[in-house]
Amino acid sequence: MDDQKRTKLLAAGLGAVVAVYFGRSIVTNWVMGPIRDLERKVATAESQAEKLADQEIQLNVAQRNLKDWKAISLPGDLDSAQRLYREWIFDLARQCGFSGSGFEVVPGARSAQKEYSTVAVEIKKAEVDLQGLARFLYLFDQSALLHRITGMKVDSPGAQGNPRLAVTLTVEGMSVTGTENRAELLPRTRLAGGIDDKVQLLKALPNEMFPVQPEGFEPFLVRLDRELLQVVEVSDAGWKVVRGYAGTKSAVHADEATVELFPVLWDRREKRLEDYQALVSSSPFVLPAAPKTWSPKLAGVSDRTIRPGEPVSLTAKLDNADPELGTASFALEDAAEGMSIDASTGQFTWTPVESLEPGKYSAVVAAVQSGKPDQKISSKLTITIQEQNVAPKITVQSAATVVLGREFSLQATATDDGPAESLKYSLGGGAPEGLGIDARTGLLKWMPARSFTPGKYDITVNVTDGGRDAKSASAKIALDVQDDYAAMTTLTGTVSRDGTWFAWLRNRGTGVTLKLKVGETVRISEIAAEITEITARHVRLKDQAGIWKLVLGGALRERVLEAPAEPVTPVTETPQAAVAPAETSGAPEPPAPAPGVVPESPTPAEPPAAPEPTAPAPAAPAEPAAPAEPAAPANPAAA
């Protein structure tokens, strides 16, 4: 083979190799390209799926946290939230021994955000020892409420013993958006029978918000006035309790006393008041002073109020005194007959005779240290012998109408010779199911179900004062529980006879038709309104709320408020009840029915000369702008 053919063969072979190489790359890209694209899309989808799964987990956690926060949130309404939270803080502070002449718990600042709102409560000018402050901090931290302490100032008057601290405190509670409103901050029930300070088994009225005894039952806390109790067992026999829990004092409690649940956060149940013992022992609020300035002050001498014949005992102490000046000796000056004090211990005693007249009896307690006899520290002690406690007086409406399916409220008020805030209201036995009363304000509330049996119910409202010898008073209320006759009563027609218009109101529940004219009063269910205008198309009525319009064929409950009444500045004159005018015929006007009671027959008598209407009037397309009294015969609408 010559060189030329060999060259051609080599060139052809080389070209074939190059063609196969590039052809293979093209085929590979054409066949494998779509597969690689699909693999990339699958990898991207898997990554997105993982991200979505992570987001779903985060969403579930956030929803669970929000649910937990709502469970311990204050009520949604800011006014109710601040009022209930302030009452709870006040009760907790009193339970922990906060006191003082200027002690008060007042509402603070409020802040409304998109996701939540906050309300603040301030404790001002409180006096308490370190143990009481530690107990307050412990119970505040234990409670299952969405709140925190935002500021606290503690001043100590002395560096020895257990001085009374001056405390100013600001706390803040949170209300999560969407939390339902409620009438009570924490669930409550009542004692079913009084107990003394030794009883270990008590009975309370059932309340589904309180724990029962299932498997996995855990002890829970309840509060009775200033005592905290731990319920360790629940059975048909009652609650087995540990008295005087968390350093509170076991006390006597009356029948129907309020029992409030004190829920504890799940992660705080293992904590005990003893955990705060280091705080109490170290006395961190007492700053060491160098050099020390001694300011001796008598402590333990406080005014008392007693009953006739009741003994008085207290112990005077000299606080913040220089121990190098020796021990203190005590004496009385200008003391009433029978008063005495131990010179070395400062123990003061007095037992007045029962025949001693009520009034104020005083003495001056003086202390002198042996190393400085010329420096006398004194304090005046006043003991008031109080008149016998007088029972409170209760005032409440003697009769009221309750409409099924509609909210009912009624205010009971009481006066007493003691502070008004010490009065406690309650309902006597036999009150209808669902009827409740606010123990502090005396406001009765009820939303009777439509399935409730109408009828007459006599209830008793009790009020008990907070005197040392508690006294009670009661009043009865006659409740007339009715169907919603205002929803059943329809304006079926308007009639003009001899120039006088009458409105026909038919009660479908009783079958009775009222025929009333201008100036007379409609009294159906809780509605009492004077008729001020009657036309062929509508009736206008007036009551304390303003001017109402009731169109032909409409139910009395569906009347529309056209002109609300203008706010009226209180005056000394007593408003007079609207009185329906006498009939033009000279016939006596029958007595008006009680609110909510439908009379057996129409109040106005029909003029005998007028023909009884028999056919309904056709409805007009529009009401005339200024309707005039027609001269034509009566044209009522059909019932």
Short synopsis of the structure:
This protein has 639 residues and is of the alpha+beta class. It is built from 5 helices and 36 strands. The strands form 10 sheets. It has a 6-stranded antiparallel β-sheet with strand order 5-10-7-8-9-6, with no helix packed on it.
What would your notes on this structure say?
This protein is of the alpha+beta class and 639 residues long. Helices cover 17% and strands 34% of the residues. The strands form 10 sheets. It has a 6-stranded antiparallel beta sheet with strand order 5-10-7-8-9-6, with no helix packed on it. A 5-stranded antiparallel beta sheet has the order 32-33-34-35-36, with no helix packed on it. Strands 1-2-4-3 form a 4-stranded antiparallel beta sheet. Among the domains are: 78-174, Alpha-Beta Plaits (2-Layer Sandwich), CATH 3.30.70.60; 188-262; 301-385, Immunoglobulin-like (Sandwich); 393-482, Cadherins (Immunoglobulin-like, Sandwich), CATH 2.60.40.60.
Key words describing this protein structure:
single chain; 639 residues; alpha+beta; Alpha-Beta Plaits; Immunoglobulin-like; six-stranded antiparallel β-sheet; five-stranded antiparallel β-sheet; 5 helices; 36 strands
